[in-house]
Amino acid sequence: MKKSALISSLLVCNAAFAIDVEHTSTPITIDGVAESAWDKATWQTMPYLMDGILPDSSKDFKGRYKLLWDEGYLYLQADIADDVLIDTHPDPTVKYWDDDALEIFIDSDASGGKHQFNHTAFAYHIGLDNQAADFGPDKKPHLYTDHLVSRWQRNTNAPYNITWEVAIKLYPNDYQEGTQNTPLKLTPKQVVGFMLAYCDNDGSKVREHFMGSHDVQPVNGSRNLGYIDADVFGKITLLLKK
């Protein structure tokens, strides 16, 4: 596929995934418990296979999520059904994509473009230890756990789904590694590039399923493009209803 045709295809695809995100006047407590403030947010699904094989949604994996925002954070609540939780790599910067992990893709100004080894966008891989990893400009994995607060809990009733909550700070495109960076103040009508995915491993050496919120169009047979190119993200618009 020619580059111009690919970009056109991505834009058409992503236009179908424009989500309006409601403001919350009460900051969300990140504790893995769904409080009443989440009632105003709408559930979104994670039905798309991005890598591996399609899991059985009735037994293995099924996910959905909600979003809210305030001046300081984009808030995420994910409802994850996963029958086996795996975290076999004790170093959170080593092969984190092959453990169970929630992956949050953020492009603070929705400008798109390649970001694998720069910070014009982030692909936060949040492990079961609530630490967040991504590649840096030196082409090595780094921890960016200070960019967010993450907590999850298993529900006590069958089917024992996980409620996973995350509060994420957004940073401008000129974010610099190893320096003091000021998070953005979020504002109404701000458009943000966003995508969500889940790495699912049930006991193999590598992850078996990689499920996402957006239907990524394959390039050379691969849909696993979010950690490389923010053009495949969808868009969210921050709303403030009076």
Describe the structure.
The chain has 242 residues and is mostly beta strands. Helix content is 5%, strand content 35%. The chain is built from one helix and 14 strands. Strands 1, 2, 3, 4, 5, 6, 7, 8, 9, 10, 11, 12, 13 and 14 form a 14-stranded mixed sheet that branches. Strand 10 and strand 11 form a beta hairpin.
- Helicity, in percent? under 10%
| H and E order | HEEEEEEEEEEEEEE
Q: Give the radius of gyration.
A: 17 Å
Portion of residues in beta strands equals 25-35%
Structural class: mainly beta
Number of helices: 1
- The poorly predicted ranges are 1-16
Quickly list its features.
242 residues; Immunoglobulin-like; 14-stranded mixed sheet; 1 helix; globular
